[in-house]
Model the fold of this input.
Amino acid sequence: MADQDSAEIRWPPTVMVVHPRERPSKCTVEPLRGREDFLFVRFPTKVPIPLDRYIRLGMGGPELSESDSDRGLLVLDGTWKLASRMEPFYSDLPVRSLPAVITAYPRVSQLYQDPEDGLATIEAVYVAHRLMRRPVSGLLDHYHWKDQFLELNGWAADQNVPVAGP
Done:
């Protein structure tokens, strides 16, 4: 892909820590595997790069903003319950939260309550990249609810352009 040339990447790769019980068929970020701007690690494998300039996407921290754009981004991928089990292993990374965004991902869990403002992992990555002014082109290409997600949040017309706000 032309827009994924290593010469164009000016920031650390987004690290996706995937819980081993996350099914690839249900994993919304699986299609990003193999891109130069993403590094996939299967939990609990140690991330093979230094994380000293990374932040972790999560809940309860200051809101992610353009001022974080020079930092690396680490994202925990799994159900909400599995992701919460991984959090202690990355507690040394500063947490950044996302602003309120509407999910298009249908909630089906009858066992556990998802956070009201919870997003599918690919939706969260998309929003984080927008806020950090990183290219979003191609991120949602394989996401079944792409059109609904973009429309619900007023982004249908500018999905390939990084912008400052959500």
User: Anything to note?
Assistant: Residues 121-131 form the longest helix (11 residues). Residues 59 and 90 are 13 Å apart (CA to CA). The chain has a mean pLDDT of 84. Helices lie at 80-86, 121-131, 146-152.
